[in-house]
Specification:
elongated, Glutaredoxin, 5 strands, mainly alpha
Length: 204
Amino acid sequence: MKRDPMEHGGKRISGGRWLMAGMCVCVLSSSVFAEPPAPVSDPAFQHRIEEIVQQYIKDHPEVIEASLAALDARRTAEEKERVRKVIATRQADLLHDPSSPVSGNPTGDVTLVEFFDYRCGFCKRVAAAVAQLQKDDPRVRVVYKDFPILGEPSELAAKGALAAKAQGKHLVFHEALLATKTEITKDELMRLAGEVGVDVKRLE
């Protein structure tokens, strides 16, 4: 009696099961005979990846420019956030330090904190604008923060201006120091102080 090849153990095997069996054989055959993938640590593999990346950069150099721009933007944002946190932490010192001279409206709701050096060219240029701002807007309150970083003459001027504060003459002396085009020496400091009504003997 001729046996049906589709039967196994007295039961007929469906076409679907034959198909699945065939697929399993194919998978097993592939796994046995296919070459294993190169490990990531393989030097030849790494070298090939580097070649591909280098070639891509050569073909698309704008990628480097975009990456640098993104890095710069991220660092700028991080620095702004760092400064914001520092300002928030030291806000009382910045706005209400009793040792810092104040001009304009003492109770104004708009506060400008100015860091400056009496020898700073930019500080000298904006001095007129700051003075005009106080005249134009009665809400403005200006807090002055001496930041003498340009040498001994800057330190001398800062000390003189703070000493004039005790006489109620800080603003006029401050403006005179920023307006002068002469190098600040002790003699020049005393001359300017006398011109704006500061008691020179007390200043010494």
